[in-house]
Amino acid sequence: MTKKSNRFLSGKSIERKPIPKNIGVVDLVEHYFNAYNAARLREACQLFTQKMLVPESTVGMSITGALTPAGLGGTCIVPLMKAGLVDWIVSTGANLYHDTHFSIGHSLHRGSPYGDDKALRNAGVIRIYDILFDYEVLLSTDAFFRSILRLEEFQKEMGTAELHYRMGKYVAEREKALGIKHSSMLSAAYKYGVPIYTSSPGDSSIGMNIAEVELTGGKIRIDVLLDVNETASIVLAAKRSGGKSSVVLIGGGSPKNFVLQTEPQIQEVLGINEKGHDYFLQITDARPDTGGLSGATPGEAVTWGKVDPDSLGDAVVSYLDSTVALPIMTSYALAKVKPRKLKKLYHRREEFMSLLSGEYQKAKAKKSKLKK
User: Taking CA 296 as the corner, what is the angle to CA 327 and CA 292, rounded to the nearest 5 degrees?
Assistant: First the structure.
């Protein structure tokens, strides 16, 4: 039978070749993730490595859910930071807090989600689904953070990127003193100059301990509005340098929106001419019809100016558990892409803010002139 040419059948043929034992992640993803959300994860891996990780692209990542208690801070996010594959981050404070347990010598353990929670409470054991650890881990981590936050260098107003950078210095020192080989997100941010923001700094144990320090006379103040403008300035600087802005969204929630709202802040609020993020990749298990995507799908994000409409084809949403998808995507990226030169965006924040302020003043003057 003569095979007819059909443009709808141009995709790679699906094979039934048995999976070999000990197959590598790259071969597994490229040859066996053929359909459904496995295919979306393959597309996400390929978008990440082929377009997002070119040298001129600036990559922002949002992180939600209890990922670091499961070890994903050290196993996935830190290696991406070290290799220059993630340039700036918006994380929940909880992820930064729980990641620090490992850095100050504590352990978290595999367990069961079906245990007797009353018995765990009586035994002084905390449960995060199937992760178990001693209650003293919380008290020790609280004490560690409060001892840092009472230092003189913290008694001022600052954004969360500066807060985390300064905290990261002391976390790195503790890791070194204890001989801990694997960095936390905070210490990696300090070492590699990756700014980490928290969109809701009061909504975590770190924020709770800052509140305790303030209650006892501390002068530390968190400027969340500075964070809004600093993150917008990072995106604007990426675009004005002739580069691209890429976003990798692990989960939803406030961090996802905080990464995406940079473009409406630039366009809608500040009136600066811009078009939206160039590349959009999200791993989520939330459904759009319940409002659970907190910023919604890439198509909806286009209507807000969050995503460049001309780049909508370069957007992938994979409806998967982040704890499954992120290790696969990380391993795939580290195997496929050479480390990029570190952008060290933390140390360029003043430069970027100057650019943002200058363009805002120009846009404001132009708008005023048109009204006359």
Answer: 75
